Amino acid sequence: xxxxxxxxxxxxxxxxxxxxxxxxxxxxxxxxxxxxxxxxxxxxxxxxxxxxxxxxxxxxxxxxxxxxxxxxxxxxxxxxxxxxxxxxxxxxxxxxxxxxxxxxxxxxxxxxxxxxxxxxxxxxxxxxxxxxxxxxxxxxxxxxxxxxxxxxxxxxxxxxxxxxxxxxxxxxxxxxxxxxxxxxxxxxxxxxxxxxxxxxxxxxxxxxxxxxxxxxxxxxxxxxxxxxxxxxxxxxxxxxxxxxxxxxxxxxxxxxxxxxxxxxxxxxxxxxxxxxxxxxxxxxxxxxxxxxxxxxxxxxxxxxx
Amino acid sequence: xxxxxxxxxxxxxxxxxxxxxxxxxxxxxxxxxxxxxxxxxxxxxxxxxxxxxxxxxxxxxxxxxxxxxxxxxxxxxxxxxxxxxxxxxxxxxxxxxxxxxxxxxxxxxxxxxxxxxxxxxxxxxxxxxxxxxxxxxxxxxxxxxxxxxxxxxxxxxxxxxxxxxxxxxxxxxxxxxxxxxxxxxxxxxxxxxxxxxxxxxxxxxxxxxxxxxxxxxxxxxxxxxxxxxxxxxxxxxxxxxxxxxxxxxxxxxxxxxxxxxxxxxxxxxxxxxxxxxxxxxxxxxxxxxx
Lengths: 305, 290
Fold this sequence. Notes:
The structure holds two protein chains of two kinds.
Chain A: H1 2-16, H2 21-46, H3 54-72, H4 80-102, H5 109-127, H6 146-164, H7 167-177, H8 179-184, H9 189-215, H10 225-238, H11 243-259, H12 267-281
Chain B: H1 2-30, H2 37-53, H3 59-82, H4 90-112, E1 117-118, E2 127-130, E3 133-136, H5 137-159, H6 161-171, H7 183-208, E4 211-212, H8 216-231, H9 236-256, H10 262-276
Helix pairs in contact in B: 1-5, 1-6, 1-7, 1-8, 1-9, 2-3, 2-4, 2-7, 2-8, 3-7, 5-6, 5-7, 6-7, 8-9, 8-10, 9-10
């Protein structure tokens, strides 16, 4: 119910331009960052892995969605969700290709493999002429508006939340806690890991598509290690393993960087220092891994006879 | 031609190896991947630039001074940012490392400016020629001093008491202190040596590729990290082997393919090696106990 009220309000705002456009843009960025952080949370938080290449999936989604909206589908905002989903699926496919060999290696090495993936994806987009090469892909329509961002953010959080509290989700958490034990209690760890990774990359792709249609121009340099690091910082700021943590982390980091804009380049000095201080005094992030009661199912934690 | 490229590969490999040593030693002692290490290398470069250009110090003074200053910086970072997190989940330390890296990059960017700087030629360049072979004294300097440093490090770790303490700490962090090893001192020492070596690598990069910018630490740092992992993280021999291997691969791929592909090749190679030797070339596979 609440969802539809907010959605209606947002659609009106988009149409009338009642909220200041600077604020609107920030809100959209917050939404996109929430999707990115929540999707990374699935792999890094709930599954306990350390994937560094999330920006790669965002890149694939961005390019694929732009390609679909510019060259495949008719030019109309009606088809925008289709482009986004296409971008997400493309990202998911890449995630699948990476996940299958990646999870054969030791845990620490997932970081390196995903980093390698990031570099490779960036290199591919730089070298392929179809997508503009190093100059980037321009002329993307501005289909992203507050309503779409809101819809997809809510959808992402809803799906991940339901996933995490399902049987499959318990499998994910079991893999984090003790993979060998999980195997022994008949959790198909290989399947769980791969599927979680694919779902995570799918949503990152959607975020990428939203991002591309917001700034209307993407080039490979946008999706660099710095972006991946940004997402990681947002995730661990809020607390991994907690959805409200991802939401808070993404929001706070985005807003903080905007508020500190008056400092110019020094905001990237102040923000990391603040993060370091936070890590020292609260190593698990703001939420400390705890979840908002609203998100937890009603019978979570209560043993059934 | 082949000789030329071999020299280039050795030069690049030495630089990667020196930085990789820092990663591998810190990992061995603390099980922490110090993602700020690449930026420490960058700071070494800038500091040397500053000492040479603003203070007009000669080469023989710049090198030890930079080594000492950056070693001190490494120890300071460890004390302030990593020590409080020694018993925290590893992820917190990693995030802190990333934040420290970001901090170093931006501080340099803010104080010095984003334009790439020209590194002064501290060593007058001579070309040696012998029949078809030619080499520059800078290349020879870099390669020989790097090898000397690596040999010195290996001897230090193998023969001295402090080196023994470092090895003991990397084998068993819980019981080493019971034998009278002061963890704080040894960890600081490790960071100091690692940072110092990275600083020297920074000077060498300035000599070899005279343009430096605040973001060079990122790419070089990650490639050195990859070298350390390929060689088997925690192993000094591995870091050296990985560094030279990566340097060779990068030069070879730059020779035969357009240079924009070289990062792809390097990281592709990494994946291939990990596929066959998941613990790295010299790494010890860790057995998981149930």
